[in-house]
Amino acid sequence: MDLSPDPEFTAQANGTAEMYDEAEADHEGFWAEQARQRVSWSTDFEQTLDWSEAPFAKWFVGGELNVAYNCVDRHVEAGNGERVAIHFEGEGGDTRTITYADLQREVAKTANAIASLGVEKGDRVAVYMPMIPETVFTMLACARIGAPHSVIFGGFSAEALRTRIDDAKAKLVVTTDGQFRRGKPAPLKAAVDAALEVGKDEGSVTNVLVVRRTEQDVEWSEGRDVWWHDVVDDQPDTHEAQPMDSEHPLFILYTSGTTGKPKGIFHTSGGYLTQVAYTNAVVHDVHPETDVYWCSADVGWVTGHSYIVYGPLANGATQVLYEGTPDTPHQGRWWEIIEKYKVSVFYTAPTAIRTFMKWGADIPGKFDLSSVRVLGSVGEPINPEAWLWYRKHIGNDTAPIVDTWWQTETGAIMISPIPGVTTLEPGSAQKPIPGISAEILDDDGNPFTEAEKVGYLVLTKPWPSMLRGIWGDPERYKETYWSRFGEKYYFAGDGAKYDEKGNIWLLGRVDDVMNVSGHRLSTAEIESALVSHPSVAEAAVVGATDETTGQAVCAFVILRGDAVDNGDETVQELRNHVAKEIGPIAKPRQVMVVPELPKTRSGKIMRRLLKDVAENREVGDVTTLADSSVMNLIKEGMSGDT
Ligand code: WTA
Q1: Cβ 376 vs Cβ 404: under 8 Å
Q2: CA-proximal residue: ligand 1, atom 23 (nearest)
Q3: How many angstroms separate the CA atoms of 241 and 399, rounded?
Q4: Residue 494 Cβ contacting ligand 1 at under 6 Å
Q5: In DSSP terms, which residues pair with 151 in a beta bridge?
Q6: Where is the AMP-binding enzyme C-terminal domain (predicted)?
Q7: Element at 553 (helix H, strand E)
Q8: Does residue 348 have its Cβ closer than 6 Å to ligand 1?
Q9: Per the annotation, does 405 bind a ligand?
Q10: How far is the CA of 589 from the centre of ligand 1 (A)?
Q11: E strands, 442-549, where?
Q12: Is the omega angle on the peptide bond into residue 329 within 30 degrees of 0, that is, cis?
C-alpha cells in the first residue's frame, strides 16, 4: 500500500515540509511567526519566550489579546459573519445553525449575564454541561471577561464535582436541568445540588446558572439558582471584549495523576491559542472557507477544549457539534451526520473506531461519506488494524489519517504526521510536529535512537500551549513533570520506541494512570474510592488490556473482617460504589475479592502480578514478594470474578 502523500493533497495542504526546517533553524522565531499570523493581538508581544524561571514558562511576553474576540468577533469584522460556526445536532434530531454573527451575539449576552451575576476577571466558573451550544457560549463568555473556566465532564459524579469546585473555589456553576443520553433524559443539576450541599459551609459558589434542556423537574435553591432564560435572554447582545495579558489563565481542567487527588492543569491565553490554531490548520488541514470539521470528543475533555472550542473557532471554521451517543437511535448515526453536513475533516478516538469495527463495515457502507478527506485519531495508540479499517471504510481509502499524540498538559497536538507532507505509517504517531522536540530516554535518562528499544517519552523544549502549572500546587508541577529525568526534560508519563524508519510509537502509560476508552483514570483514585466503602479493607487496581476500550479497570479487594461476602451482590455493590464516587467511566469491569494482595517487603503492591491475573496470563516472577505464596492464595480464592 502506498501511503506517501497524494500530490493533489499536498498542493492544497496548509502544512509544508519547509516548516520543519524553519522551526529547526529558529525555534522561537517559528513560534513568533505562528503567533502573529494566526492570532490577533491588541498589543504585540515584546519577547517570544521567557524561560528564566523554568519550568514556569511565559510565552509572548507583554502581548495582549482577548481569546473570545479571536474566536468570534474578528471573523465577523472580516466579513464572515454569515459563515456557519456550529451545526448543532441534538441526540433527538433537534438542530440549530449558528453563524459567526449569531455566535457573537450569544457570547455577548452570556458574558453580560455572568458579569451581572458578579463574575469578574480572575474568578473561576465551573461548567457542568452536555454537548449543547450554550456550553460553547459559556466557555467563550468566560474567556471574554477573563474568568477561567473549569469544565467538568458530565459523566463525573457529585463527589468528583465537589472536589473540583472546591479546589478551584468556583464562584459560579453553569449547568443544565438534564441531558439526553441514549434517547432518555438524565438529570445533571441534581449532581450540582448534591455537590454544593456537602460543601455548604465553606462553599465558594454564589450562583448556579441553569439551562433548560430536558425540561425535567429540578430542585431549586432560591437566591442561588437562576435560569439561563431569565438572566441571559434579555441581555444586550453586544459586549466589549477587554484585552488580557498573554499569560492570563484561560482555563483549568482536572485530570488524573498518579495520586488520588486530581490535578488542576491550567492553561493561559496567548500561547495556548497560538498552538491550537496552528495545529488545527496544519495537522487537521482545516480550510475554513471550504471544510466542514467534526470532532466527536466531549467538551469536558481537553480534546473538546482545544479542537471543538478554541482551535477551530480561532480559525473561523465551520463545525458540527453533536450531543449524543454513536448508537442512538441507530448504529449509523455518526455516518448519517457526516453525510448530512458533508463533513470533510473528522477527528475521533480509537476506542470508537474499534467499536464500529465490531458493529460491521456494512453500517458506514450505507452512507455517502465521499466528503471525508482527512481523518484524525486521538486518546490512545491506534492499532494498525483499526487504522486500516478507518481509512478504508470512513476515509474512502484515500484520506490521510493523523494519529495525534498529546495530553491535557500539552494543551495541543505534539506528535503527529502532517497530511500532505508525511508518508504515513499505520499505528505510529510518527514524529514531533514543526516547533516541537521530543526524545526517548532509557532508564538512566540517556537519549537513544536505536529501533525497537523501549524507553520513556520526554519533550525537550518548552512549547506555547504547555501547561503553566497545577492549580494551587507549583511544587507538584515541578515534581510530576520536571524531575524524573532532571529539569531539562518534560516527562510525559508514556512509554515509547522508534521503529527502523525513525517513527515514534507510543506504548501507553508507564505510571499508575490507566487509559480506558481514551479517558485517563488513576489507579490510586479508584483504590481510594473502593476503600471508602465500609466493607473494604484494602484495594489494588490495575488496567488490563481490553479489546474495545484499550484498557479496562480491574480491582482486587480485601474485605474487612466483619464484612459479609455476598459474592456477585458484593461485587455489584462495589462497582456501583465507584461509579457513585467518581463517575460511571471509572466503574471497574471486574472486582475480585481476594484474601491477600501481593506486596514487596517494603509494602509496595506489585501491580504487575495482578495484571497477569487480570489478563489471564501465567503469573510472572514472584521472588520479590514478601510472601511468595500470596499469588496462589489469590488465584484459588477469587470469589467475585464477574
Ligand atoms: C494517551 C488526550 C498514543 C497518552 C489528548 C497520553 C495517546 C494520554 C495518543 C493523555 C496517541 C493520547 N497515541 N497515546 N495518539 N493520544 N494518548 O490528558 O497515554 O486525556 O499521555 O489527553 O493519552 O490523555 P489526556
Answers
A1: yes
A2: 379
A3: 39
A4: yes
A5: 127
A6: 525-604
A7: strand 550-559
A8: no
A9: yes
A10: 21
A11: 455-459, 469-470, 490-498, 504-509, 513-516, 519-522, 536-546
A12: yes
d(CA 309, CA 207): 24
Tens digits of residue pLDDT in 412-428: 999 999 999 999 999 99
Indicate the pairing of strand 125-128 with strand 184-187.
unpaired
Evaluate: CB of 349 within 6 angstroms of ligand 1: no
Ligand 1 atom nearest to CA at 520: 20
Question: Per-residue pLDDT tens for 555-585?
Answer: 999 998 888 899 999 999 999 999 999 999 9
> Quick check: 619 pLDDT over 90?
no
> In a mutational test of the pocket of ligand 1, which residue from 295, 380, 504 has the highest number of ligand atoms less than 8 Å from its CB?
380
Residue 45 CA to ligand 1 centre (angstroms): 32
Q: Which atom of ligand 1 is nearest to the CA of 492?
A: 21
Interatomic CA distance for residues 389 and 350, integer angstroms = 11
Q: Which three cell numbers stand for residue 365?
A: 457502507
Q: Which residue has the higher pLDDT, 351 or 51?
A: 51
Tell me if 305 sits within 8 A of 151, measured CB to CB. Answer: yes
Give the angle 98-83-342 at the CA atoms, nearest 5°: 85
Asked if the ipTM is above 0.90, the reply is yes
Closest CA to 103 of 237, 242, 229: 237
| Residue 195 host element (H or E) | helix 189-198
Residue pointed to by grid coordinates 494566526:
38
**What is the Cα–Cα distance from 133 to 176, expressed in whole angstroms?**
12
Distance CA 127, CA 148 (A): 10
Is 52 known to sit in a ligand binding site? no
Q: What is the pLDDT of residues 375-422, one digit of tens each?
A: 999 999 999 999 999 999 999 999 999 999 999 999 999 999 999 999
Is residue 598 within 8 A of residue 634, CB to CB? The reply is yes
The half-sphere exposure of 26 on its side-chain side, counting CA atoms within 13 A, is 9
Signed CA dihedral, 610, 611, 614, 616: sign only? negative
Q: Using CA atoms, how far apart are residues 411 and 466, in angstroms rounded to an integer? A: 6
Closest-CA residue, ligand 1 atom 14, reads: 380
